[in-house]
Amino acid sequence: MNETTRTTSPCPVARTVDLLGDKWSLLIIRDAFDGVRRFGQFQRSLGVAKNILSIRLRTLVDAGVLSSEPASDGSSYREYVLTDRGRELFDLIISLRQWGEHHTVVRGEQYAPLIDHATGEPLGRLTYVRPDGSPVRADDTHVGDLRPMA
Amino acid sequence: MNETTRTTSPCPVARTVDLLGDKWSLLIIRDAFDGVRRFGQFQRSLGVAKNILSIRLRTLVDAGVLSSEPASDGSSYREYVLTDRGRELFDLIISLRQWGEHHTVVRGEQYAPLIDHATGEPLGRLTYVRPDGSPVRADDTHVGDLRPMA
DNA sequence: CCGTATCCATTCCGATACTG
DNA sequence: CAGTATCGGAATGGATACGG
User: What element of type H or E holds A49?
Assistant: First the structure.
């Protein structure tokens, strides 16, 4: 499970998992969606060691998920912001959140909700749908034979 | 980032990540959706060491994601199948897959597609929608103040 | 065929010190 | 504040041996 896997496994799930399937990377991405940009912000928010954070940020930048830009406040430091590729990880973070809300938080327990601007209330249960609006369930699919990407 | 985090962080994303945000757990769940049930099947499919697999399976069973059932073939062994809670991780696996298909596989490259039974063709781009059918984007949301789970 | 246990190398991680 | 370097302890992972 290494660089080799990332480029040789024909399974897109394996490739994604190999790239960012670890706790810190996923939480960095979560924070990035919440507007966190600076090294120190990530560090305090996550409670992660600075050396580890340094490595993870570099990996995510190398992977094209984050970009490293000059700080907007004129200081000589860097800001880490989601690229277009990174922003497409929104659904992944949402998936983690939806399952977590359902299965790791009990009734009455305090939790940090995701507020829907459309209503001002916590986002309800979301559904993955095809372009025609029909929902997809596990039984509707199976992994097929290898084929070239269109 | 441990058991304590899992029960104390108010962020559902962090709780989920803490529970199954590692490569092997995610790939075990992927395999489970693909019909893998037996220890040896997982072992060969993933190429993971048996001691690690043993630990991961136990963790997932303890978390209620997999159940450990008597083998259906009458042998004295165990089969690991997704529980209801586990099956609700389908969207998570799908989101990993969708990103991976788009951003880790290049045109013309061989990959393992997910076939949609409705069409017999690879599943296209999916969208997360609210109950009313409207799609949700990152800009439509923000993390709000703590509140009790309804 | 299942699964556990052990050994060893590697990696991960947190704390700390240090430089700009 | 931002980031790198180092050190020691813990966890991970692979290989293998072993018992059910």
Answer: none
- How distant, in Å, are the alpha carbons of A2, A79, A98, B64, B137 from that of A117? 40, 26, 17, 33, 10
User: Does the pTM of the predicted model rise above 0.90?
Assistant: yes
> B113 is written with which tokens?
């597609």
| Spatial CA neighbour of A57 closest among A46, A70, A68, A47 | A68
- Which amino acid does the sequence have at B132? D
How does pLDDT run along chain B (150 residues), one tens digit per residue?
Answer: 445 555 678 999 999 999 988 899 999 999 999 999 999 999 999 999 999 999 999 999 999 999 998 887 877 789 999 999 999 999 999 999 999 999 999 999 999 999 999 999 999 999 999 999 999 999 999 999 999 999
Nearest to A48 by CA among A57, A37, A60: A57
Residue type, B131: P
Angle (deg, nearest 10), helices B50-62 and B39-46: 120
- Which of A2, A48, A91, A105 should be substituted to probe chain B, the one whose Cβ sees the most B Cβ atoms within 10 Å? A91
Our CA angle for B49, A15, A131, nearest 5°, is 135
Is A92 exposed, middle or buried (CB count within 10 Å of its CB: 0-12, 13-18, 19+)?
buried
DSSP 8-state symbol, B121: S
Which run of H or of E encompasses B80?
strand B78-82
The residue whose two tokens read 């990959």 is B111
- Strand C closer than 7 A to residue B61 Cβ: no
Residue at token pair 């991976």: B100
Candidates B29, B66, B99, partner chain A, best to mutate (most A CBs within 10 A) = B99
CB-CB: which of A15, A130, A139 is closest to B124?
A: A130
Cα–Cα nearest to A126, from A92, A94, A87: A94
Residues in chain B: 150
